[in-house]
Amino acid sequence: MEQSAVKTRKSHTAKDKHHAKYRLKASEHGIYPRMIQRNALTVVEKLQRSGYEAYVVGGCLRDLLLEKKPKDFDVATNASPEQIKKVFQRQCRLIGRRFRLAHIMFGRDVIEVATFRAEHQDDHHDELSRQNADGMLLRDNVFGNLENDSKRRDFTVNSLYYDPKNNVLIDYFNGVDDLHTGKLCLIGDAETRYQEDPVRMLRAIRFMAKLDMFLERSSEAPMKSCAPLLKNIPAARLFDESLKLLQSGSGLKTYELLKQYDLLQYLFPSLMPFFTEKQDSLAERMIRTALQSTDERIRDNLRVNPAFLFATFFWYPLREKMDQLKNEAGLNNFDAFSVAASEVLDGLCRALAVPKRHTIVVREIWALQLQLPKRSGNRAEKTLAQPKFRAGYDLMTMRAELEGGELIELAAWWHEYQLSNPQQREHLMVQQNDRDPKGAKTKKHRYRRRKPSHSKVKND
């Protein structure tokens, strides 16, 4: 009995020593409990009080170590989704089949809690683990311990765990050192990890651009051969990833990296014919201009709309399609626009599954490009009242910057019109009508139906 107790103590001591070398004093790296969102701390504390392991995990720690503001805070635990549900009851909502998660609700704030994952084995049941012929994980619900989970994370800089109770960072793969040296490195065999989830290639690009890191050579080598696997990713998921890539505040750098690694074609295949060797086509110049503007807006804490980005990306493909329809099918400008807009948006949606709420706005922004040149009569007033006028105007000013010519005068006129008072606008309209008398509309008289006179009634 005593011998078994001694053996148990020795095994625990060996295990503690093994884990000790991965445990860092968080305070030495500038991490303290007060820096963690209150609701995330509450989730960790409640799980620990219920007898489970629980840690703040992943990207939020990476951002704190880089002195950036985390977007959100996630938690990892050895409690199963059902056990998490039992702890938090109505406050908890279980989601997902491919990757089961728990969402703990604090009003509008949501803390995502994941159960520790483990490696997949051939004998696992389909409900727990499933892969396709290319090695992509279709289901990932094999649960394990903390060390197992750290191996299942994608990059070393994301495989960090924080215990706020003891103010300890757990780092199995030298993620803290990689952060300091700017090295982005996959955990495990890179080709296998890309096959398991091809979106990891897009995540690599995003982190390289956003965190100003370089991709470690062994993680970079398989990207070219694995890139076609992105065709297997659902279009809806690629749409979500495209927003993360282009609206991260480093959209222009991300775009250049996507081109460098030949990944852009899997997000925007219909743009490929508009790319040139010198990268100086109007479409390419517009994309760079729009992304630079978006990055500046994000730095200034201004709102950005994905619909505007899509409208800028595909304006020149739309215009080329319109010209083709007018020349080959003899369509007028309005009909050519309607057909071309549908075709261009269909191509975009096949690749990215852009929601209708965005494609409607894209159409409105494009339609304004046809309305903005028509200023005579009361057209300017009606155009200014359009809900998406500002986005349409911004696209026009970008076009003026790239194309020059009459668009420069048009952009300047609309700029002045927006800043003018009613009297000044009327003066601008008089000048415009003098320049374009044919476009000026005269007010039509509205004829009211005359009531019969009393005399006529008497005569009847």
Helical run tally: 22
What's the overall geometry?
elongated
Approximate strand percentage: 5-15%
Give the termini distance in whole angstroms: 124 Å
**CATH superfamily membership of the domain at 18-120 and 140-181, which one?**
Beta Polymerase, domain 2
Describe the oligomeric state of these chains in a short phrase.
Answer: single chain
Instruction: Give the strand line-up of the largest sheet.
Output: 1-10-9-2-3-6-5-4
CATH arch. level architecture of the domain at 18-120 and 140-181: 2-Layer Sandwich
Under CATH at level 1, the class of the domain at 18-120 and 140-181 stands as Alpha Beta
Would you give the CATH topology of the domain at 18-120 and 140-181?
A: Beta Polymerase, domain 2
Helix content: 40-55%
Give the C-alpha Rg.
30 Å
Structural class assignment: alpha+beta
Based on DSSP secondary structure assignment, what is the total number of beta strands?
12
Could you tell me the mean pLDDT? 88
Poorly predicted parts: 4-16, 122-130, 442-448, 453-460
Largest sheet: 8 strands, mixed
